[in-house]
Structures are given as structure tokens and as C-alpha cells.
Design brief:
By secondary structure, the chain is of the alpha+beta class. It is 30% helix and 31% strand.
């Protein structure tokens, strides 16, 4: 018997979708997974290597979002010197899935033109091209 005052249908649905999404995505387990039943959304931060290779971070974002539809993305040059990136799309059962991470802005190799505090939209293709440019410069 549940002690909940109401049924937890939103939580149960998101838990099922999160379990399937993590199980079926060929990537390491996420380091953070947040269920937000109010917004019908799952937020996921990929596990990245401890040395924070920017190409590995960008690759993790792309791997975790490759099966989503209607992907919209943004990146922001934070005031503390990071490039914060988030991609959001639709997953199974219409659940919104947001995947996010960051890299040091200095590691973009001058390929991202954003002033500190500024942000703009970004596509998965642009992230892929950024990863290629960073890899060429390493």
C-alpha cells in the first residue's frame, strides 16, 4: 500500500521512460538524472572523463540525444568561463529529455564567438563541427 495522497502516474511514467532510455542508449551511465513530472521532462547530465576532454563532452551530448526528435539546443558563455550546452528533444511517450554539460570556454579554440554572459541557439550539427575543429587543434 502506498502512503501517497494521490497516485504517482507522472513519476511512474518518467521512471519507465528514463530506464528504457538509459538502457537503450549506447553510452556510459549518466552522472545525474532528474525526473520532473510537473513538466513531463527528464534532465540528464552525461558522465564525462575526469580530465574533461571537450571532444568527449560534446560526443557524450550527441550520443545521448541522437535518438531524440525535434532537438533544440542552446549554449551560453557563463561568467565563470564555461561554455554551458543543453540539448532538448522528445523521447519515448512524448517525454521531453534535456541533456546538458559544459566545457571550459578556453577549450573552444576560438571557434565560438560569445561574450561572457551571452548565449544563442545551437544545433547538434554545430556541436559536431565544433568537436571536429577542437580535435584538429589538439
Amino acid at each position: 500500500m502506498s502512503a501517497a495522497l494521490t497516485t504517482l502516474t507522472g513519476v511512474a511514467k518518467l521512471t519507465t521512460v528514463a530506464r528504457m532510455f538509459v538502457r537503450d542508449t549506447p553510452a556510459p551511465e549518466p552522472c545525474f538524472l532528474t525526473l520532473n513530472p510537473h513538466d513531463n521532462q527528464i534532465e540528464l547530465q552525461p558522465t564525462v572523463p575526469t580530465r574533461r576532454d571537450p571532444v568527449a563532452v560534446l560526443g557524450a551530448l550527441l550520443i545521448w540525444t541522437h535518438r531524440l526528435t525535434g532537438i533544440a539546443g542552446s549554449w551560453r558563455h557563463t561568467r565563470n568561463g564555461a561554455l554551458f550546452i543543453e540539448l532538448t528533444g522528445r523521447g519515448p511517450a512524448g517525454v521531453r529529455i534535456q541533456v546538458y554539460s559544459s566545457i571550459p570556454f578556453t577549450q573552444t579554440g576560438g571557434h565560438v564567438a560569445l561574450a561572457a554572459g551571452a548565449g544563442e541557439s545551437v544545433t547538434p550539427d554545430e556541436l559536431y563541427r565544433l568537436a571536429l575543429e577542437i580535435r584538429k587543434g589538439q
